[in-house]
Write a structure and sequence with these properties.
mainly alpha
């Protein structure tokens, strides 16, 4: 039987795991459309401001392309890592529950067995006040 305190804590850990899995799903959707399929990527002419500015246009386009690639990688990584975080939180809650049950069994054994400190204790008859053979 798991204590109520531990059950509440592990329930909260599992709720936190669900939150991170949901965030991973949301980030996966962002990556799939439009980020991952280049739906937000701008072409070189988005940076064109006139015929004398071709070098500037190319520089701005290259900077944007690098930034877009980095943002795309971050979104993809977030989806993966947040899913892994949710799974880790579930494993943590399971381990808390498992070790709490193990500790409870161990403690029950400690408190239900009489302590002898390695020395044989008095017999049941002696404990009840009956005379012993000597």
């Amino acid at each position: 039987m798991t204590s109520e305190t531990t059950r509440v804590i592990t329930d909260d850990v599992r709720k936190e795991a669900d939150k991170w899995r949901d965030l991973s799903d949301e980030m996966s959707a962002v990556y799939a459309n439009p980020v991952g399929n280049d739906g937000l990527e701008l072409g070189v002419f988005a940076f064109f401001i006139g015929p004398t500015e071709l070098i500037s246009t190319a520089m701005h386009f290259e900077a944007y392309t690098q930034f877009y690639a980095e943002a795309k990688d971050l979104v993809k990584a977030a989806a993966t890592e947040w899913l892994q975080l949710g799974e880790a939180l579930d494993r943590m809650a399971d381990e808390f529950d498992r070790t709490d049950q193990t500790a409870e069994v161990d403690l029950e054994a400690v408190y239900t067995e009489p302590a002898t400190n390695g020395v044989q204790g008095p017999s049941a008859a002696a404990q009840q006040g009956e005379p012993q053979d000597g």
